[in-house]
Amino acid sequence: MKTLFARTALTGLLLAASLLAQAADMPRTASPAGAEVYIISPKDGATVNGAFKVQFGLKGMGVAPAGVDVPDTGHHHLLIDVKDQPDMTAPLPTTDNIRHFGKGQTETELNLTPGQHTLQLLVGDKNHVPLNPPVESQKIIITVK
After folding, report:
1. What is the rounded CA–CA span in Å between residue 28 and residue 43?
2. CA distance 137 to 78
3. What is the number of other CB atoms lying within 10 angstroms of the CB of residue 140?
4. What is the pLDDT of residue 3?
5. What is the pTM for the complete model shown?
6. Chain-centre distance of CA 109, in angstroms?
7. Cα 92 to Cα 136: distance, rounded to the nearest angstrom
8. Dist CA 62 CA 68 (whole Å)
9. Mind listing the pLDDT tens digit for each residue in 9-21?
10. How many CB atoms lie within 10 A of CB 77?
């Protein structure tokens, strides 16, 4: 049983590595001219309590779920307290600091620790790869009580 589990896990890892390698070799999806992404709320400099809503705005392109190949669309990724840009040539990783909204969501509720935090939106293509050139918002700073 342990051998079967180990083989299944190894097969899964090899498949995932293969898919990531293929995605890295693919050309990046071009962003539509003039496309912009922005955070509607909270506003830069806002103080929020505990759980709060973040609303995403997008102009000059549409929102489509991950995996859906429709021209001039993408989906949101929210970068929380990310200091350095992620690799713009590979699928964005899913971490506590990089949240994926691959179902086409345009808002979320966050519950962050008290203190200052930065928020930034980055649009990805059907494979979670940032568009070329990137469609990214300005970083905003919020304070959580």
Report:
1. 31
2. 10
3. 19
4. 54
5. 0.82
6. 15
7. 13
8. 12
9. 444 444 444 444 4
10. 25
- Nearest Cα to Cα of residue 135 among 67, 62, 68, 81: 62
Are 108 and 80 in contact, with CB atoms under 8 Å apart?
no
* Amino acid (1-letter code) at residue 19: L
- Dihedral sign (CA 143, 45, 118, 131): positive
Average pLDDT over residues 1-26: 49
Q: Which domains does the chain have, with CATH numbers?
A: 2-144 (2.60.40.10)
Predicted confidence at residue 143, as pLDDT, reads: 98
d(CA 118, CA 44) in angstroms, rounded, equals 9
Query: In angstroms, how far is CA 29 from the centroid of its own chain?
Result: 15
Kindly tell me if the per-residue pLDDT of 24 is higher than 70.
Answer: no
- Rounded to a whole number of angstroms, the distance between the first and last alpha carbons of the chain is 50
Q: What's the one-letter identity of residue 59?
A: K
Q: Give me the helices (H) in the chain, please.
A: 2-25
Dihedral of the CA atoms 96, 111, 56, 43 (nearest 10)? -120
Q: For the segment 63-112, what is each residue's pLDDT rounded down to a tens digit?
A: 999 999 999 999 999 999 999 999 999 999 999 999 999 999 999 999 99
